[in-house]
Design brief:
With 402 residues, this protein is of the alpha/beta class. The chain contains eleven helices and 13 strands. The strands form three sheets. It has an eight-stranded parallel β-sheet with strand order 6-5-4-13-12-11-10-9. The protein has a three-stranded antiparallel β-sheet with strand order 1-3-2. Helix 3 links the parallel strand 4 and strand 5. The chain starts with a helix and ends in a 5-residue tail after the last helix. One of its GO terms (molecular function) is cellulase activity.
């Protein structure tokens, strides 16, 4: 039946063939179901099949529900194959980066500047060293702009906070991994949405000047803009890019983030204007976040279904490819249960299979103060017990390291 559907689509001549890496099947997919010469349509799941490099197959697959209205009697050259078989033959990709958020320096979000060791803390070097030993090669180090520049965005740094932050970043990069300094500010400064794009640019020029010579730094313009004017999100991202490059930091990649908490699931509705961002170095990466609970907030241990991760990112995969962009899942997590584990696995397999556009992913989160937090990825160091997320997911996740 599936083969007759495919042959029917082909025989009508109404549909073009899919190009390299393009979608070629999936629930409600209305585009081509076959691929250009040299590419094979590989079933990934019911929502997504993709044209991957490879000889023309003797079997073609597509989702069971696709194109159910197209029928044909000319099914002669194709035969069916099971989804399981097709999945097993998927071309494995390779991530550039795979790692863990490092939380702590942004804690105490309403108390500024707060006290080190009371309201906030920097990540544990022993934990980072341990995770690097497990193979992880990127760490997103959260910090608070209110603590780094306590007076104004364009003002001078708090020297001690800057030193602790750069110590952490240098520790990571000296060990050969990549460090992402993450202003964990949601597009806000002391609770107010940043509207002064010039000041935002100056902040980034000043900040990037401190790190310009470190090519293993990956900049991040801000954590999770939300409920803001969409054009402002574009302008703030562009100001950050311009500010970083103006500091002479030209070798580093820059992670831009979107509105509505940078959600991958809604990227293709919410953040399409960010396609207009420009970088003279051409090193932008669109950082998206994706959790697998009912409202994508990462506040529940439950995952909606075993396929929810894939369902929530396939639109972003298509958006990145259609626009010639690169992406990274900068935050993801699931509870310590089998449904979540399957959902995480399937999402990561999807990202990895599409590593021409996805550069990698980072678990949310490590950090010394998470305690019994359901996603904690802190290993057993410094006298702490291993976190719930680390205990349950490390064996799985380390299989995805670059
Ligand atoms: C697929 O299309 C059917 C009707 O054609 C619709 O009921 C369903 O909601 C669609 N599913 C998705 C995921 O868009
Ligand atoms: C920086 O870290 C040191 C410990 O290494 C601590 O004593 C100091 O209070 C910290 N200062 C800030 C501002 O983080
Ligand atoms: C947008 O992304 C979602 C989530 O991945 C996907 O279900 C939907 O089909 C996409 N819509 C468009 C128009 O690409
Ligand atoms: C999903 C998640 O755990 N988000 C948390 C990230 O960390 C900040 C503080 O750093 C919390 O406010 C969020 O709830």
């Amino acid at each position: 039946m599936r083969s007759s559907i495919l042959a029917g689509a082909f025989a009508t001549g109404a549909l073009a063939q899919g190009g390299a890496w393009s979608q070629c099947g999936g629930n409600n997919w209305s585009g081509p179901f076959t691929c250009v010469s040299g590419y094979t349509c590989v079933y990934e799941n019911d929502w997504y099949s993709q044209c991957r490099p490879g000889a023309a197959p003797t079997t073609l697959t597509t989702s069971t529900t696709s194109r159910a209205t197209i029928t044909s009697t000319t099914a002669t050259t194709t035969s069916t194959t099971s989804s399981a078989t097709a999945s097993a033959t998927a071309v494995p990709g390779k991530f550039k980066w795979f790692g863990v958020n490092q939380s702590g320096a942004e804690f105490g979000e309403k108390i500024y500047p707060g006290t080190w060791g009371k309201e906030f803390i920097f990540p544990s070097k022993n934990a980072i060293q341990h995770l690097i030993g497990q193979g992880y090669n990127i760490f997103r180090v959260c910090f608070s702009m209110e603590r780094l520049v306590p007076n104004t965005l364009t003002g001078s740094f708090d020297a001690a906070y800057l030193r602790n932050l750069t110590d952490t970043l240098n520790y990571i990069t000296n060990a050969g991994a990549y460090a992402v300094p993450d202003p964990h500010n949601y597009g806000r400064y002391f609770g107010n949405v940043v509207t002064d794009t010039n000041a935002f640019k100056t902040f980034f020029t000043n900040f990037a000047s401190q790190l310009a010579s470190n090519s293993r730094v990956v900049f991040d313009t801000n954590n999770e803009y939300h409920t803001m004017d969409q054009n402002l999100v574009l302008q703030l991202n562009q100001a950050a890019i311009d500010g970083i490059r103006a500091a002479g930091a030209t070798s580093q990649h820059i992670l831009v983030e979107g509105n509505q908490w940078s959600g991958a699931w809604s990227w293709n509705i919410t953040n399409t204007n960010l396609v207009a961002l420009t970088d003279p170095q051409n090193k932008l990466i669109y950082q998206m976040h994706q959790y697998l609970d009912s409202d994508s907030s990462g506040t529940s241990e439950a995952c909606v279904s075993a396929d929810i991760g894939v369902q929530r990112v396939v639109g972003a995969t298509a958006w990145l490819r259609a626009n010639g962009k690169q992406g990274l899942i900068g935050e993801f997590a699931g509870g310590a249960n089998t449904q979540c584990k399957t959902a995480v696995t399937r999402m990561l397999d999807h990202l990895k299979a599409n590593s021409d556009v996805w550069q990698g992913a980072l678990w949310w989160a490590g950090g010394p103060w998470w305690g019994p937090y359901m996603y904690s990825f802190e290993p057993a160091v410094d006298g702490n017990a291993a976190g719930t997320g680390y205990s349950y997911y490390n064996d799985l996740l380390r299989g995805y390291v670059a």
